[in-house]
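Entry 14. Ran structure prediction on the chain below.
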Amino acid sequence: MSFVNGPAGNLLPSQVAFRVVCVRILRSLFGGVLVLVSTAIVALVSADRLAHLAPPAVVRAAQAEPSATGSLPAPVKAAPAPKAAVPSIPNGFDTERLNALMRGDPILPRR
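Output, structure tokens:
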């Protein structure tokens, strides 16, 4: 037994065309339903998350400094301590000799 109209069986051309049209319509409907269901899922999950947001953090009013309210006297600021004199060669490194080396000048011994 062989197929006259291929794997569709012994169908008339109008019957094959009807099946093709039905498959196309069903495929479009299935695609539309799939898009609709996924959109509904996203919308419902978003609405649920928006409905159950975490409560905002409680913010307390800033308290004033006690010295500003007059309950405590303002602290007296001490005068800054005088800075010690910076040695001419800190920690033993001689920048003049280094600069002379980088320029290519001969290094003369110190007197």
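Residues 70 and 110 are 64 Å apart (CA to CA). Will compare against last week's run tomorrow.
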